[in-house]
Amino acid sequence: MVDLARETDLMKLNNATLSQLPESVLRPRYDRARLKPGIVHIGVGNFHRAHQAWYLHRLMQQGDALDWAIIGAGVRQYDASMREKLLTQDCLTTLIELDPSSSTAEVIGSMIDYLPIEEGNGALIERMARSDIRIVAMTVTEGGYFIDPATKGFDPTHPDIVHDYQNPATPRTAFGAIVAALRLRRENGIGPFTCLCCDNLQGNGDVLRQTIVSLARLADPDLANWIDENCTFPNSMVDSIVPATGPNELALAHQLGIDDMTPVTHENFRQWVMEDDFCAGRPNWENVGAIFTDDVHSYEAMKIRILNGGHQVIAVPGEVLSVKTIADCIGHDLISRFFTKVALEEIAPLVKPVPGMATNEYVGLVHKRFSNPKIIDTTRRVAFDGSSRHPGFVIPSIREGLAKGSPIEGLALVEAAWARMCEGTREDGSKIEPNDPNWDDLNAKALDARENPNAWFEMRKIYGDLVDEHRFTDSLARWLGLIWEDGLEAAISTYLET
To answer: Which CATH number fits domain 4-294: 3.40.640.10, 3.20.20.70, 3.40.718.10, 3.40.50.720?
Structure first.
């Protein structure tokens, strides 16, 4: 940890102090005063700044993409705190790469402004409606796209969606704001922009198109048709492990001598795979390592099934067994072996390899990435919002495994462990604080499922028609009974012996 005596010597991060950064810290070589906006990004969290903003920053370091700078945006009140912090430091961010053998740091400057967070989203709509904005991108979490988990279709009944189509000029959601901005662009003859989803959703561009076009159609079918015909929604896959910022991350920035209120730590791995379908142009991201392909699906399936699904395989048992970080989970013999067996035997055989990477090799790569002790990624963060992450990351493997007659016992055990976690206590008796937007319902179902497993797997909004698949439900019920009777470690040991 940083010596508190040095706190008064820390250098405030902003444009004026860039030249004073320690020599070991990389900094923008481009003149930030010359940057012009081209992208609005909604959802300026740690992942965006360590991933998409970094790729653009690297292009700018080459003297390219200087007219593609990012304007940050948000639609929820909790975004206001991030906005205030970033504006205080001229939207600069310290990125600290944590590799087991070394650490490096750089300050990135590809974001130049952050729009006000306000009711009705007027500033956001007005800025997206200007002709210089050619891409609107977003990272709003997997559960933020108003999808019915059972049908995968658009859910028009959500109160925020009802508000937006009844009040199209003053929307609550990012999607309502995008529709409003596109309406203005159409009226003013400006033309469309590309809508770029950067969340962990299979077919994320298709999902984003579904949400925006469906919302527009509720109020203005002609506008919906114009959006569908003129805007583009490229599918993409994003990958890098980026923990939340807390005291440890702030201390790492302080150790560099930098007073950054929002530093970001990340692993030494990034991947960005996209369809090349941008209706109003794009930066030359391929020059800094992004991959453009017509087969994004294979990349995203490998990543979502093995990495994101694998995160749930280890984080859920980790929470129940009081293992605090993902690296500690890999250091836990049973959890580590559990991940490897489930990934190799139940997930990877269903995944198509991508150029240069066999699925078994990817399992090994993910295991190595998860084991990085410098990445303080908590099991709680990874296990958050299971009601979105299990349908998106785990259940597709179960569904395909059932269809193909391949093993699903380990995946059923993951779901049983999730039911145990949602009961709200760890095996050491400590309390698990609410960790899901639907926690109250999950907790009630998990409590009932202790005696009646049907209460858990009959949640059709989570499992859909899987509740009628007896090979899955019988397995889940058996594992849940064993967990409550003998404990989760005993259940995992039993599975590992099969």
So the answer is: 3.40.50.720
Using the structure block, give the residue that is written with the tokens 């469309």: 192
The SS3 of residue 233 is coil
Contacts 24+ apart (CB under 8 A), 456-459: 456/419, 456/480, 457/415
Contact 54, 65 (CB under 8 A): no
Res 2 pLDDT > 60: no
Helix (H) or strand (E) run with residue 361 in it: helix 359-370
> What is the helix (H) or strand (E) element at residue 39, kind and residue range?
strand 37-42
Which pLDDT tens digit goes with each residue over 390-449?
Answer: 999 999 999 999 999 999 999 999 999 999 999 999 999 999 999 999 999 999 999 999
pLDDT more than 70, % of the chain: 98
Q: How would you classify residue 299: left for phi > 0, otherwise alpha for psi between -120 and 50, otherwise beta?
A: alpha
Encoded amino acid at 9, one letter: D
Task: Estimate to the nearest angstrom the gap between the alpha carbon of 33 and the chain centroid.
Answer: 31
DSSP state of 298: H
What token pair was written down for 136?
């609107």
Whole-angstrom Cα distance, residue 267 to residue 240?
A: 7
3 state SS of 94: strand
Sort 166 into a burial class: Cβ within 10 Å, 0-12 / 13-18 / 19+.
exposed
Question: Given the structure tokens 């002790």, which residue do they identify?
Answer: 373
CA–CA gap between residue 340 and residue 246 (Å, rounded): 30
What is the domain partition of the chain in residue ranges? 4-294, 297-496
Q: Which of 81, 27, 30, 32 is nearest to 59 (CA)?
A: 30
Query: What DSSP line would sit under 137-185, residue for residue?
Result: EE---GGGS-B-TTT-SB-TTSHHHHHHHHSTTS-SSHHHHHHHHHHHH
Question: Percent helix, strand and coil across the chain, each rounded to 5?
Answer: 50, 15, 35
Q: Architecture of domain 297-496 in CATH?
A: Orthogonal Bundle (1.10)
Running DSSP on this structure, what letter comes out for residue 92? -
Length of the chain: 498
How many CA atoms lie less than 13 Å away from 194 in the CB half-sphere? 23
- Closest by CA to 52, choosing from 138, 168, 155, is 138
Q: Token digits for 366?
A: 């993910």
Q: Quick one: which of 186, 182, 39 has its CA closest to 112?
A: 39
Residue entry with tokens 């923990």: 243
